[in-house]
Amino acid sequence: MSFLSYQETRPWAKAIKQAVTVRKMPPWYADPHTGEFRNDRTLPASDIAQISAWADAGAPEGNPADAPKPLSFVEGWQIGRPDLILEMPSEFSIPSQGTVEYQYVVIPTGLKEDRWVQAAEARPGNRAVVHHIIAFIREPGSKWLKDAVPGVPFVPAKGGHERGVMADDNLTGFAPGMPAEILPPGQARLLKAGSDIVLQMHYTASGKAQSDRSRIGVVFAKAPPRKRVLTAAVSNQKFVIPPGDSNYRVDAELTLYSPSTLIGMLPHMHLRGKAFSYRVTYPDGRREDLLNVPKYDFNWQLWYLPAEVKVLPAGTKVACTAFFDNSANNPANPDPQAEVRYGEQSWEEMMFGFFNIAVDVNINKMDLYRPKRETSQAVPAKSGD
Fold first, then answer.
1. Taking Cα atoms as reference points, which of 93, 105, 104 lies closest to residue 206?
2. CA 83 to CA 117: how far, in whole Å?
3. Are strands 340-341 and 287-293 parallel, antiparallel or unpaired?
4. 194 vs 69, 162, 216, CA distance in Å?
5. How far is CA 85 from CA 89, 112, 160, 213, 255, in A?
6. Residue 160 has pLDDT above 60, yes or no
7. CATH 2.60.120.230, applies to 229-368
8. Please, what is the angle between helix 13-21 and helix 45-56, to 10°?
9. Cβ of 79: how many Cβ atoms within 10 Å?
10. How confident is the model at residue 1 (pLDDT cuts 50, 70, 90)?
């Protein structure tokens, strides 16, 4: 439903009261006892009381003269008018039923010089069938998806979608509850000359044959940034969740070997996801809990942005713990009798603790993931659902 005007909102008054009273809306799942977040959507009790009183009074309109100015959208873009729009060259057909493997679409940027990205947004062409979009930056010389023809949807061989230790960076993404990324002045993502954008498209059959042609919008920074933004992930792909297990635990850890500043965290699991937490152990041994999501909801993929600056010195360990409910008591569980492993589709599972960090603009990305004078062991962000 749309809430852009009083006339559109008025019929939903009782439902709105119920949703805010039980705190189902707005969606926010962080434990208030662990960390503070500048994008906290939690409504204060006074706002809930005011909404409830309005609904109980018959949802009166009030004085139209006191209404705020209507929001202005630029062709639907959240980031304003993009400086660059990259679109799938042709529509992709989604069948009415069945599983659709992840489709990868390589789109050349055509950039002749390095550019810094201040804001980026992924826009699905057909929200009825687009489950998610992840837009990756494939830098010049990368061998990832080397057999893919630009503009033509490509399904790599099993395991061929992984980008490996020399992974390129994320640009932006789309999933339920995920707003467009608009970085503050002084921070930006690097888009090198000659780079390609690789769209990872996850389509879900809707019961009717449909098509999609999604696109990406980019706004360039007006000045060189002070910090470069990168996406990393703590991940575990070797778990096996037993049938009926209501509280299966999976742990993962990643060491950052260069200094950085934490910008945000996005826990990711699938339909059996139950709870997720982040913590760090600093080089001096001090431990800090950063985020606890005690009731994870797959329907809302949310970023949690720390209210205070979190400096992560070189040698900081970022750890995540996930719990899964594979029992019949989980109403979202596709099959409580199944043994569940890592996989791309929603009825399989994932364990990713994505996080964004700001680093020195001149950093060699791989120095984040390996000790000095060593060339092995790196776990940058991988493609995910």
1. 93
2. 10
3. unpaired
4. 42, 21, 17
5. 12, 16, 27, 13, 36
6. no
7. yes
8. 150
9. 20
10. confident
Q: How many residues does the chain have?
A: 385
- The closest of 176, 165, 218 to 381, measured between CA atoms, is 165
DSSP 301-328: ---B-BSS-EEE-TTEEEEEEEEE--ST
Name beta bridge partners: 43: none
Q: Which run of H or of E encompasses 53?
A: helix 45-56
Q: What stretch of H or E contains 15?
A: helix 13-21
Residue 366 DSSP class: G
What pLDDT is recorded for position 377?
45
Place of tokens 């999609």: 212
DSSP 154: B
CB 126 within 8 A of CB 211: yes
**CA-based nearest residue to 126, from 219, 201, 27:** 201
State how far the Cα of 321 lies from the Cα of 373, in Å rounded to an integer: 30
Find residue 318's DSSP bridge partners: 254, 280
Q: What are phi and psi of 195, to 5 degrees?
A: -75, 155
Tokens of 351: 């364990």
133 backbone dihedrals φ, ψ, rounded to 5°: -130, 135
Structure tokens at 162: 């992984």
For domain 84-225, give the fold: Jelly Rolls (2.60.120)
pLDDT of residue 159: 56
**C-alpha count within 13 angstroms, C-beta hemisphere, residue 257:** 17
Positive/negative CA dihedral, 273, 231, 200, 183? positive
Question: Which structure tokens are listed for 328?
Answer: 């019949």
Q: Rounded to whole angstroms, how far apart are CA atoms 339 and 269?
A: 16
Tokens read off for 129? 């069938």
Kindly report, residue by residue over 133-149, the tens digit of the pLDDT. 999 999 999 999 999 99
Residue 280: both structure tokens together: 């760090």
Q: Do domains 84-225 and 229-368 have the same CATH topology?
A: yes
Domain residue spans of the chain: 6-66, 84-225, 229-368
- Output the six-digit token pair for 240: 């096996």
